[in-house]
Amino acid sequence: MQKKLLVLFACLLALTLFAFAAAKNPDTIVSAEYGSAESLDPHAEWDNASGEVINNLYDNLIKYKGQTIEFEPMLSTAVPTVENGLLRDDGKTYIFPIRKGVKFHSGNILSPRDVEYTFERGFLADNSSGAVTIIIEAVSGGAFYSIADWFEDYAGMPLSEAFDDDRVPTSPEARAKMIAFYNEVIDPLFEVDGDNLIVHMRNPFAPFLSIIPKYAAWGSILDSQWCIEHGEWDGKADGWWKWHDRTPEESALHMKDAGCGPYKLAVWDQTNGMVVMERFDDYWQGPAKTKTIIFKAVVEYSTRKALLEAGDADVILVDPIYRYDFDNNPDIQVISGHPRAQVTSIHMGWRVKETSEYIGSGKLDGKGIPPNFFTDINARAGILHSFNYDALIDDLVNGLGKRVPTDLPEGFLGYDPTLPVYAFDLSKAEKAWKAAWNGEVWKNGFKLVAMYNAGNEVRQTACEMLKVYVESINPKFQVEVLGVQWPTYLKATREMLCPLYIVGWVADYPDSHNFFSTYYHSKGYYGARHGEDYAAFAVKYLDPIIDAAVIESNVSKRAELYAQLQKILLDNYIAAPLYMPQGLFVARKWLKGFFPHLIRSSGDSTPEFYYAWKE
Question: Kind and range of the H or E element at 56?
Fold first, then answer.
């Protein structure tokens, strides 16, 4: 009997050793996705691929508590509340006690001055490609979305006229106004008092704390000494405009890091779309469990799948269309169905630049479309009634999605399940197309480009579905489906070159304003990309409601405003939410430590690597 037990023990030990040995490269985690980072400057990015990397290189003042949307301290040793006396003046003053002894990757020690520098540098830089606009809006109490607007309000002249293309002030008066703007407006917003960083809000802004936690790359705290030594803003009032709205590539942080997060940047190989990060052993919370993290941009799903099955990738991004591909693979874990604060939508540019290569002839002659094609409500209605929404959810995302009336996820303030959703109805679509542009669309036809980011097969198939249905209505209608790489896609939408494209938004912070402002405000991240005709409409009908709602402290009144807003959106066919996605995480079973979170910038395609390891 004893001999049998010894043999059994030996077999179990061998099996255990084999199981541990099965994990390839146990000190390295490889994540394969279809997008690559656009910039590693926290103030110059606003995309998931960049945010995933930055989240590991930097820390923020506060963070979410586990999977909840409650907060706990991070680089600040306390979360400001009315109860602890750190939130004062009816929500206009926030006090953050800064943690001592935190070491940056450079070896420099964190101080309140670094936090002050971080916020001010972000404000003054105000990169048009970045998300600092979110914090500017908050600290200004909803009054401004950009430093340029704030300066013009203060100085009575456009910032673009205060300095020339070489960033030289256009006059001594302009120079004096820019210096005074920093001294009198920006610098007083952020104050160092002993070990504290104090934020002085212009007006109350209820979601402020929700804007700056971990997962929000724009809230990352920078090493000010490193930044100044490497040519970033020198911290002075005179000359700050030299660093305003540069291209991401002009930043010293574009391909380097000045953080104090659990990992430090080792390599960013842009040619091959690969980022390598190494563990920062002096991390203030203790070293991460895994030594090396590698992000790989792999556009083709079949390649990502092969990497995962071979164990050469530990976690990959999988579109829901492939939800069941791994059901019979005992080495792979699939976690799905968890809620995600995200909406994927069709959007249309109301005024595309005439130089765009995506509008064909630029005329309504059957060979293209005019730049303002979608200013006609019937053209928008024709598109939105030509899409088979239920088929997309059932067949393309395998049920991991839900229809929502507007670009607002279920569960957020103002969400109303009784609101109508656009019907897939080709007879309604035909009626709209016949009315569009006084019948010229139906008579002449058009050629329209529907764009998606290459590698996103759900979006690709959605565009192809739209093509089939639109072209079935009239043989003169042509839809070209075009996939482009992620950086090109972002640039094309940002520069108002795309007439029709599919976009998604993962919540930056858990508040309805993040969706309504982003998608629909004339100065929102997507709203601003629809062109001047849309801006005129939004300024008149949408902006006043969005601006009033975000500073309204009464929840019921806020909900009423959002109800009013959504009626306007639906009546005017502004955009079409395709679906609200649900989570899908696919990884090797040897990868441990994953937990879903509504607001993580990377969605659920990757874990938070500080807590991840391989067995």
Answer: helix 48-57
**How close are the terminal C-alpha atoms of the chain, in Å?**
33
C-alpha–C-alpha distance, residues 297 and 272, integer Å: 8
Q: Which residues of 223-249 are buried (b: 16+ CB within 10 A; e: fewer)?
A: bbbbbbeeebbeeeeebbbebbbbebe
Mean pLDDT in residue range 554-575: 93
What are the tens digits of pLDDT across the range 74-125?
Answer: 999 999 999 999 999 988 999 999 999 999 999 999 999 999 999 999 999 9
Number of residues assigned to the chain: 615
Beta strand 477-484 with 71-73 is unpaired
Q: pTM for the whole thing?
A: 0.77
Identity of residue 566: Q
Within 8 A by CB and 6+ apart from 236, the residues are: none
CB-based contact 588:311 (threshold 8 Å): yes
pLDDT tier, 22 (very low <50, low <70, confident <90, very high otherwise): low
Cα dihedral 190, 192, 193, 197 sign: positive
The structure tokens listed for 267 are 């390599």
Q: How far is the C-alpha of 352 from the C-alpha of 529, rounded, in Å?
A: 9
Q: Number of helices and strands (H, E) in the chain?
A: 19, 20
What's CA 536's distance to the chain center, in Å?
A: 25
Q: Which residue has the tokens 């940002």?
A: 494
Q: If you average pLDDT over residues 267-295, what whole number do you get?
A: 96
Q: Which of 340, 614, 342, 304 is nearest to 505 (CA)?
A: 342
Q: How far is CA 99 from CA 109, 110, 508, in A?
A: 10, 8, 25
CATH of domain 59-237: 3.90.76.10
* CA atoms of 450 and 457, how far apart (whole Å): 14
Superfamily of domain 28-34+258-336+583-614: Periplasmic binding protein-like II (3.40.190.10)
Mind listing the pLDDT tens digit for each residue in 335-371?
A: 988 878 889 999 999 999 999 999 999 999 999 999 9
The answer to whether the beta carbons of residues 502 and 465 sit under 8 Å apart is no
Inter-residue contact 364 to 372 (CB < 8 Å): no
Residue reference for tokens 């009033």: 548
| Predicted local distance difference test score (pLDDT) of residue 605 | 59
Say if CB 509 and CB 413 are below 8 A apart: no
For residue 166, what are the CA distances in angstroms to 175, 241, 355, 374, 482? 14, 11, 25, 37, 37
Contact between residue 224 and residue 110 where contact means Cβ atoms under 8 Å apart: no
CATH 3.10.105.10 intervals, the chain:
342-581
Question: Could you tell me if residue 556 is left (phi over 0), alpha (psi between -120 and 50 degrees) or otherwise beta?
Answer: alpha
Residues 484, 463: Cα–Cα separation, whole Å: 13
405-445 pLDDT, tens per residue?
Answer: 999 998 888 999 999 999 999 999 999 999 999 999 999 99
Q: Give the pLDDT of residue 604.
A: 54
Helix, strand, coil percent values for the chain (each to nearest 5): 40, 20, 45
Q: Tokens 């586990």, residue?
A: 66
The CATH number given to 342-581 is: 3.10.105.10
Is the separation of the CB atoms in 522 and 539 below 8 Å?
yes
The token pair at 558 is 């806020």
pLDDT tens string 531-541 = 999 999 999 99
Please, where in the chain does CATH 3.90.76.10 lie?
Answer: 59-237
| Helix segments in 58-181, DSSP class H | 112-125, 132-139, 147-155, 172-181
